[in-house]
Amino acid sequence: MNRAEKQELVAAMHERFGSATALVVTRQSGLTVAESMDLRRKVRAAGASYRVTKNRLVKLALEGTPFEALSPLFTGPTAIAVSDDPVAAAKVCVEFAKKNEKLTIVGGALAGQVLDTDGVKALASLPSLDELRGKLIGLVNAPATKVAGVVQAPAGQLARVFAAYGAKDEAA
Question: What is the stated purpose of this protein (predicted)?
Answer without folding.
Answer: Forms part of the ribosomal stalk, playing a central role in the interaction of the ribosome with GTP-bound translation factors.
